[in-house]
Amino acid sequence: LHRLIRRQRQMCIRDSHVDYQGWADFIVMLFEKYGSNIHNVVDGGCGTGTLISILEKKGYRVAGFDRSLEMIRLAQKKSGVPYWQGDLKSISLSPGWDAFLCLYDTIQYLTPEEMEKMLLEVRSILKQRGILIFDVVTESNVLRYWANYTEVDSDKDWRMIRRSWFERNRQLQHTEFEISLIEKKTVYQEHHVQKIYKLEEIE
Hints:
Strand content: 25-35%
Number of strands: 9
């Protein structure tokens, strides 16, 4: 239990660095510009559910899934939105959704083959004029901002170090988080690896 609580604090620390309200406003703008009567929205890789909780308050019928059971448990505490543990590589949903979200570079954790499978599954669950919204970090963006990046942030009871580097010969972006819980004198580390695409590959 104590390990789970500490893990939840880690995720809340990382959450604090994202402008979810700004993202939600941007997503709504995309709905209005490119969608058609968007009402039912599912978020694949929803994390702790902050974004779709905001969308729910804006009047959308939302649901979300994530591979991490710990993330889902945190999300379930925020609202009565349907959340479940699921995988982008195997989306088990009935057709009829207006929009599918896959944000915060989540799609880049997939291999090209896995991404192709995910796109086919998303297509099968969306309505005829449904839309998929996802974002990626491109190679030019990585080279400009994240190829050799370090960020340090802290509060009275925690300290976070983020290190990012780019393995260009393999087109892989590495991001390492080191989160220290000062009171517990405990340090946690995570290492994320994402496939980076050139813009022409995505288009």
